[in-house]
Structures are given as C-alpha cells and as structure tokens.
Specification:
7 helices, single chain, flat, disordered N terminus
Amino acid sequence: MLPLFSKNKLKHSISLVLSLGILSFTSTTLAQSNTNQEPLEENTVTPVNQTETLLSLQGGEKLMKEAEVAINAGNYDLAATKLQQSRRIFNQLSNFYLQLAESFSGIDNRLAEGQRAGALKTAALRDESTYQLALVHRAQNKPELSVPLLIQIIRSQNPTSELGRKSYQQLYEIGFVETPFQTSTNEKK
C-alpha cells in the first residue's frame, strides 16, 4: 500500500498526464478540422449587434414582429411564446446596459449616459412586449396571467405614462381594480 503522500503525487501525475493527453488530442483534432477551412484571423472582431443574433435590439424587435404576425393569424400560443422571448431579451439587454452604466459612472460619464440611454430604450421595448403579451393572455381568456404583467408595466413606466394608463385601463376592464384612473390628460378626451 502506498503512503498518503505518494497516493496524492500519483493522482496528480495521472491527472497531469491525462490533461496533457487531452490537450494534445484537442489541438491535433482542431488542427485537422481546420485544414479544410480558410485560416482563422486571430484579431477579427464581430459585433454582437448583428441582426442574426437574438441578444440584440434587432433580435427582440424581430420576435415582436413575428408575434404580431401570429396574432393577426389568430395563433395566440405562438404569439405568447415570441413575446415572452422578446421580453426576456429586452430585459437582459436593459440589465446589461444598466450594469455597464454603473461600471462607468464617475469614470467616463459620456459612456455611462450612453449606456443608461440604451437601458431606457430596451426597458421601454420590454414593457411594450409585456403589454402585448398581457393582451394576448386576455385574448386567450387567461386574464389572471395578464394581471402581474400589467402591474409590472405600471411600476416600470409610471401610472401617468401612456403605457401605464393603458395598463391600468386593462386592469380595470379585467375587473382587478374597481376605480377608474382619471388624469387631466385622459379627462380631456
């Protein structure tokens, strides 16, 4: 039987040999797989803001357009899926922009303000897709799924914003709230 120190050395040696073997196998495999392809340029940077990627403003907007097509076709299940995906993308983007804004705050205010603007824009799109999703749930006779979405919009947008007022009106129509919301803006209409 090997002493404990020797066992540890042996385990370390075996894992080192296996690691090196895997690395050498991987690099050989990669080298072989790249022989039929064009050589990779090492310093090529591709922007994430391409229209083909989902984690982008264009990706979220594309999903919203697909949802609109599905709504017009009466396919509410597909529309709900597309709107949930767009909400998730816009929410992630908004959070990423906010994190960047916080990181640059006090260091480079120009960059921080630009990231804050990106966060506001994507948050507004998130709230718009959330509103559309709430309407789809109503069309599916699932108003109970609309309620939390509409409340999220009101909290995010403010009750006096256009989308906030429309969201509260939906809550009123559903019967979740009993008192209509009157502002000087919608009283004049």
